[in-house]
């Protein structure tokens, strides 16, 4: 399993057994043999500790590099999308601020959009779901017991396969057959989720279209490169686009959590409005 280094715990009893046999054959060397075994065990334990510390350092560093690269890639992708399509956050905010109809439509679709987004983001645990489905299939044999203990946070198929291969409780199972079954099942699960995710994203997009909120500039902007370039000369348009780059780079989980928190405030705001209307 990832994050585990070789251990001397399994080899020490063997060394002690060999030392006992040597002591029986050469009793006059008993002390020397015991000292040699103790020295070997101490050296191996020290080496194991140093390798473990080195491995942990390398894994931490690799995780930091991966996180940094992910942020860079996300920012670059956000910049390409926002600048190419000229998505102006300032213009979007003005629409919401100036149009009561747009605000009402956004409030109307808030709950359904949050539920839809929750359904989309929940697909990240596809490896765990695949293992659970396999557990149901193998409920009548020992493999079902092992598979039912799979962690709940395995995302990629590679993570699920690694857990299946390295889990100590699976050592007596036919791992090769289970790996093949898992690979096929996880691939199918991924294809199904991608297709379903596309439908969910399209549903969210359709709801946003109903709000009459315009995210892209007029079609004339994309008629030619000259028109596209001149559009950035409008007051505040470039600044609003750069703000969009920043917002997009925060990632989907951030905006999902923000939308969820805002949606949770809606009942409280509605009650406050009702109180104010009752007083007036």
Reconstruct the topology from this structure.
Elements lengths: L11 H14 L4 H56 L3 H10 L1 H22 L4 H12 L4 H6 L9 H10 L8 H36 L14 H7 L5 H13 L2 H28 L1
Helix pairs in contact: 1-2, 2-10, 4-8, 4-11, 5-7, 5-8, 7-8
Structure keywords:
mainly alpha, 2 domains, 76% helix, disordered N terminus
Helical fraction: over 70%
- Looking at the structure, what is the overall shape? elongated
Quickly count the helices: 11
**H/E element order:** HHHHHHHHHHH
Low-confidence stretches: 1-10
First CA to last CA: what distance?
Answer: 67 Å
**How large, in whole angstroms, is the Cα Rg?**
30 Å
Description:
This protein folds into 2 domains: 14-85; 87-249, no CATH class. The radius of gyration is 30 Å and the shape is elongated. With 280 residues, the protein is mostly helical. The protein contains 11 helices and no strands. Helix 4 (100-121) packs across helix 11 (252-279), helix 5 crosses helix 8 (175-210) and helix 7 (157-166) runs antiparallel to helix 8 (175-210).
Q: What can be said about this structure in brief?
A:
This protein is mostly helical and 280 residues long.
């Amino acid at each position: 399993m990832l994050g585990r280094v070789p251990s001397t715990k399994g080899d020490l009893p063997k060394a002690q057994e060999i030392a006992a046999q040597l002591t029986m054959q050469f009793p006059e060397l008993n002390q020397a043999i015991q000292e040699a075994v103790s020295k070997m065990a101490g050296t191996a334990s020290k080496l194991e500790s140093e390798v473990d510390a080195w491995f942990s350092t390398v894994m931490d560093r690799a995780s930091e590099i991966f996180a940094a690269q992910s942020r860079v890639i996300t920012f670059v992708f956000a910049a390409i999308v926002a600048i190419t399509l000229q998505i102006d956050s300032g213009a979007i905010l003005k629409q919401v601020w100036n149009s009561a109809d747009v605000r009402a439509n956004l409030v109307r679709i808030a709950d359904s959009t949050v539920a839809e987004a929750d359904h989309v983001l929940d697909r990240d645990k596809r490896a765990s779901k695949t293992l659970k489905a396999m557990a149901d299939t193998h409920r009548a044999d020992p493999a079902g017991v092992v598979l039912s203990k799979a962690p709940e946070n395995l995302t990629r198929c590679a993570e699920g396969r690694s857990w299946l291969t390295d889990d100590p409780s699976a050592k007596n199972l036919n791992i090769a057959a289970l790996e093949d079954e898992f690979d096929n099942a996880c691939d199918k699960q991924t294809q199904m989720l991608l297709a379903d995710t596309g439908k969910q994203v399209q549903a969210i997009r359709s709801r946003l279209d109903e709000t009459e909120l315009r995210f892209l500039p007029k079609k004339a902007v994309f008629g030619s490169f000259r028109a596209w370039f001149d559009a950035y000369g409008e007051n505040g348009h470039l600044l609003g686009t750069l703000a969009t780059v920043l917002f997009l780079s925060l990632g989907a989980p951030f905006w999902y959590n923000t939308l969820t928190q805002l949606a949770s405030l809606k009942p409280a705001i509605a009650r406050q409005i009702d109180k104010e209307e009752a007083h007036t």
